[in-house]
Automatic annotation (TrEMBL):
Main location: endoplasmic reticulum
Name used for this protein in its record: Alpha-1,3-glucosyltransferase
GO CC annotation: endoplasmic reticulum membrane
Membrane topology: Multi-pass membrane protein
Keyword entries, A-Z: Endoplasmic reticulum, Glycosyltransferase, Membrane, Transferase, Transmembrane, Transmembrane helix
GO MF assignments: dolichyl pyrophosphate Man9GlcNAc2 alpha-1,3-glucosyltransferase activity
Listed pathway(s): Protein modification; protein glycosylation
Entry keyword Glycosyltransferase: yes
InterPro entries recorded: Glyco_trans_ALG6/ALG8 (IPR004856)
Gene source species: Triticum turgidum subsp. durum
Subcellular location: Endoplasmic reticulum membrane
Transmembrane segments: 135-158, 174-191
Protein family (similarity comment): Belongs to the ALG6/ALG8 glucosyltransferase family.
């Protein structure tokens, strides 16, 4: 008995059909590293540009605000960080972020003080702008991004796709676009690396909290989101959304 001939027009593999022509066929790790490198390069390019308030007395803009907070947290006791004193004029870039942000400024101040103490000297450094100090400040932002936001983004994408949370088939094939959208977010890149901000820390902690919920690590999620709120209070409106995610995750486990 003759064997039936296989049809030449066999059904295409759904994963192959879902892949766009320009999607790389490289292994996931290599693709993730390539996207991360592109995001890092974009941040470096943005950081060489100007920033708001550059050279504009009397407050000198965003750079001076962050530099001044480093100056205060380095030289003053924590009890004076939020009080108006002879060394802390709240009318001149008073520290208005929660304590974790202040301790982050203190850590960065110690790093800068080790190589360029004039940049964070108490009182005398007001309005201090040099190429070296701005370069050091840029590096503090970039290193914070690499150590907090990048790992959180990778964890979030992994947790979103794992076990079908992010869907299957075509949506699973799109994990690289999800990672690219998170790491190449123009708002975060322009604000943080263009204007000496550290939103990458609080956003990274928040993203890590969401990843913790998706991967059913509620205690880790609670700890990370608590840190996010204590870094920048603007994440507080997300509290109820985080709680709803946690409740939905708990329901799915029953």
């Amino acid at each position: 008995m003759a064997k039936p001939k296989k049809s030449r027009n066999s059904a295409p593999d759904p994963s192959v059909a879902a892949r766009l022509p320009w999607q790389p066929s490289a292994p996931p790790l290599a693709t993730a590293l390539l996207i991360s490198f592109a995001a890092l390069l974009l941040r470096a390019l943005v950081s060489v540009g100007p920033y708001s308030g550059q050279g504009a007395a009397p407050k000198f803009g965003d750079y001076e605000a962050q530099r001044h907070w480093m100056e205060l947290t380095l030289h003053l006791p924590s009890s004076d960080w939020y009080r108006n004193t002879s060394d802390n004029d709240l009318a001149y870039w008073g520290l208005d972020y929660p304590p974790l942000s202040a301790y982050q400024s203190r850590l960065h101040a110690r790093l800068i003080n080790a190589s360029l103490p004039d940049a964070v000297a108490l009182r005398s450094s007001r309005g201090f702008e040099s190429h070296e100090s701005k370069l050091l400040m840029r590096w503090t932002v970039l290193s914070s991004d690499l150590m907090v936001f990048f790992p959180a983004a990778l964890w979030f994408v992994w947790a979103y796709i794992k076990d079908g949370v992010g869907g299957s088939g075509e949506r699973r094939e799109g994990w690289m676009w999800l990672l690219a959208m998170v790491l190449l977010n123009p708002c975060l890149v322009l604000i943080d690396h263009g204007h000496f901000q550290y939103n990458c820390i609080s956003l990274g902690l928040t993203l890590g909290a969401i990843a913790g919920i998706l991967s059913r690590n509620e205690l880790v999620a609670a700890a990370l989101f608590s840190l996010a709120i204590n870094h920048k209070e603007m994440k507080l409106p997300l509290l109820f959304k985080i709680i709803s995610y946690s409740q939905a995750s708990a329901t799915n486990m029953i």
